[in-house]
Amino acid sequence: MIEDEDRTERQRRGWIMAYRVLGDAGAVCRRFGVSRPTLRKWLRRYEQEGEAGLCARERRLGVKRLRNELRRLHDLRLSDATIHKVLARHGVSVLPT
Questions:
Q1: Where are the domains of the chain?
Q2: CA torsion, points 52, 35, 20, 18, in degrees to nearest 10?
Q3: pTM score > 0.70 for this model?
Q4: Tens digit of each residue's pLDDT (9 = 90 or more) over 23-36
């Protein structure tokens, strides 16, 4: 898992360096197969935080994200209210990944 994170950070660093050299977001996006909003997000994080900004953030699973993941991974369909009740019963509003 650590190797995947390192590889992902290297990829993001590559996008940033390519953008600095080319100065053309469209060309970078086409070359690396990444969307413009994604490139802008990582550029912004890199500018604000430097290398640390290229690390993945911890995802937290709220009601909507849990609903979508349950549907996608297990074909389980639960209402937002049901998921909220289960979370509330356990005293949490979101789950860490």
A1: 2-54, 60-96
A2: 100
A3: no
A4: 999 999 999 999 99
